Every structure is written in structure tokens, then in C-alpha cells.
Amino acid sequence: MKTISLFAALLAFFCVHAQEQSHLQGSSVDSPTNDITQVSNAVQASALEVSVFPNPSKGNLTIGGKEGSTVTVYSASGIYVGTWIIGAEESVSLEDLTTGSYICSVERDGVRCMKRFVVL
After folding, report:
1. Which of the chain's termini has less CB crowding within 10 Å, N or C?
2. Burial of 13 by CB count in 10 Å (0-12 exposed, 13-18 middle, 19+ buried)?
3. What is the pLDDT of residue 6?
């Protein structure tokens, strides 16, 4: 009876040890989604200085950002609405949007910032 409980205790120890090793192998400093990379991406995205106003809107909306940025707008259901380039006036005016929620993606030099807005 003692050999069975000793065997069970050893088996439990090795199972827990194997789970810990598996967990540790899953975390790596070199992984592309570590905390440092996420913070770096957030800092770069904030450098785009994107503004969406007024939000909520009644159909006429302005998206502001740096000149040369690409603005792509999708509905909340994922339907492509359009793509615009921000010019020298550093904004894009969108008119006659139908009621609903939208997501705009503003990209420049490989850095992307996403904003959500609502049209009433």
C-alpha cells in the first residue's frame, strides 16, 4: 500500500513539474507580442496624433492627422467604406455617412492607429 501512495506522489510531482516547464517555455523575451513591444507600438501610434471629431457625429465628420497618412474606414460589421489620404490641411472630411458605428485606421510609415466613431 505504501508503494502505491509513493508512486502516486512521484507521479503527481512529475506532472506538476512538467506543467510548470511547459508554461515557462511559452513565455519568451524574444516573442513578438511581449510587453515591451506592445508599449513601443502604443507610443508610436500615439505619435500619429489622430483626432476624430465631432464624435458622435450627425454625418459630417473630420479625421485629423499628419499629412500623407492613409485613412481607411470600415463599418462596425466590417464593410469597407473608403480610403482617403490626409493632405496639407491635415484632415479628411467625411460627409453623408449613414447611421452606425465605424472604425477608422490611420497609417503612416508602417505605424497604425485605430479610432472608433459613431454617426447618429
Report:
1. N
2. exposed
3. 52
Q: What is the CATH number of the domain that holds 88?
A: 2.60.40.10
Query: In the numeric block, which cell numbers belong to residue 11?
Result: 507521479
Q: Shortest CA distance to 117 belongs to which of 22, 39, 52?
A: 52
For 48, other C-beta atoms within 10 Å of its C-beta total 18
Query: What confidence tens digit (pLDDT) does each residue in 21-44 have?
Result: 444 455 444 555 677 777 766 666
Domain that holds residue 86: 48-119
- pLDDT the model gives residue 32: 59
Split into its structural domains, the chain has a count of: 1
Enter the pTM of the model.
Answer: 0.62
In the chain, the largest separation of any two C-alpha atoms, in whole Å, equals 84
Q: Residue-wise over 66-81: b if at least 16 C-beta within 10 A, else e?
A: eeebebbbbeeeeeeb
